[in-house]
Design goal:
heterodimer; A: six-stranded mixed beta sheet; 18 strands; B: about 250 residues; mainly alpha; Sulfate ABC transporter ATP-binding protein (chain A); AAA+_ATPase (chain A); nucleotide-binding (chain A); ABC_transporter-like_ATP-bd (chain A)
Chain lengths: ~325, ~250
Amino acid sequence: MSIEVSGLNKKFGDFVALDDVNVTIPTGQLTALLGPSGGGKSTLLRIIAGLEKADTGSVSIEGVEATHLPAQKRNVGFVFQHYAVFKHMTVAKNVAFGLEIRKRPKDEIEHRVQELLKLVHLSQFAHRLPSQLSGGQRQRMALARALAVEPSVLLLDEPFGALDAKVRKELRDWLRRLHDDVHVTTVFVTHDQEEAMEVADEIVVINEGRVEQVGSPDQLYDEPANDFVMSFLGEVTHLGGISLRPHDIELEASPQLAGSVEGTVSRMVRIGFEVRLTVLTVDGDEVSVVVTRAHARSHGLQEGSTVWLTPAAGATVVPRMAAAV
Amino acid sequence: MIWFSALVLIPLAAVVVTAIDGGWDVFWATITNGQTAAAIRLTVFTAAGVTAVNVVMGPLIAWVLVRDRFWGKSVLEVLIDIPFALPTIVAGLVLLSLYGTGSPIGIDIANQRPAVFLAFLFVTLPFVVRMVQPVLEELDRDVEEAAASLGASRFTTFRRIILPSLTPAITAGAALSFARGVSEYGSLVLLSGNLPFKTEVTSVRILSSIENDNVAAAAAVATVLLAISLAVIVVLDLIQRRVAARG
């Protein structure tokens, strides 16, 4: 196991950033730390990198006890949300920095820098200054710089957070492919569940300083440990004491299934091929339901229609928490 | 541009013209006159020395002001600016009562060269600090952390990452501090005693030329100072480019 974190606690004044966190991150995989802002995921990443000190607990990287190692000695690559470029150096110099620190021979550095710039598609920009690059290009440069020192783990803190939606999507596809080529153990922090589900092999859900669940994207989506994980990974609605996905509700125009709940359509919004309904049930619940357009049309649905709702067979359901999100 | 010309270029040109008006012989005679030459040497070397001190101490003070939290920090912030705000003659008076004859702390440097150095140091202190401070505040902590995670020691990070970012500010501060030193009059005139060949600086020399109704001589000295200041600014700019490019 590549990174082992145990019993980690961290407070900033009165604020508890991490509360007894235990995580094991497997070698060679792409792991996402997912959670809402201020949940402690960035703090965890920074403690792994040695940029922040934990109050208690231990960190080991590749079997080496790293709790008291300074950042310089941990051999981790770190990529920051706002790129953290060395403004006065060219792109090539930025990438070469870590190798120069390690006093590698000049021709080796040059060769390696060229190789890395090719990997991140920046070869033609080698002699530009970072200020002449776009945000996406800067972040690719930062990634090449972090990879240059052949880190045992690569840590990315909201790497695409400062980029616009289109570039963001391109970059995360690209990161996935890059990881398939390079295979360095990678951990990235994100608050975007779609990003995590799309890119990561494994997701660690962190909320309020605690690990809520660890698992593959499918596991988390299909078998969420609790209401929080479920609601964080996708839309959730509540029907008769359980939480489930709006598209996991069967909707009929007449009471055909046992245990179905009667309600009235109070709102109907068509978005492309799907129709989103808000149904007021006789129990007083406000339930969101998503059906296909064909389904809605065949039932002649409109606002004011009376419908019967049932959880679909095989739907992911968890008991509803008192303080539901 | 017109504004700039009216404010800066025309007066400067006027000084040079006045100097040339007196003829080359007068100009040369003035600046090779032993007393004048001694004043120019004293002024330039002292200003250079003071600037060197400021280049080292300025960033240090700025660093402490930006990065450290300590009791009385806001007071120190205000104190730094006092040499800016204080009329220089008042500064001179303060220095005289502190370091003059009958000094309460037992240091008597009145009528000696260290008096000039001290006066220069006092009035030029804020320049580098105030130039460097905002740049240091703007500096991303991320960048230092990135350097650290790439294996750079704190010293290497400072030398290769922080210093190049500060260099333009340090250079600008140094240029200002040098220029201020060369032109200083009020703060040293009391303490230094203005002894020819010993503690007389150029600004005093210019004033005495004017008082002796020798405008051409005054303009000649002024022109030399102008040339030196220009040279210093150009040299500092070159140094800055060199350091910034070295990265």
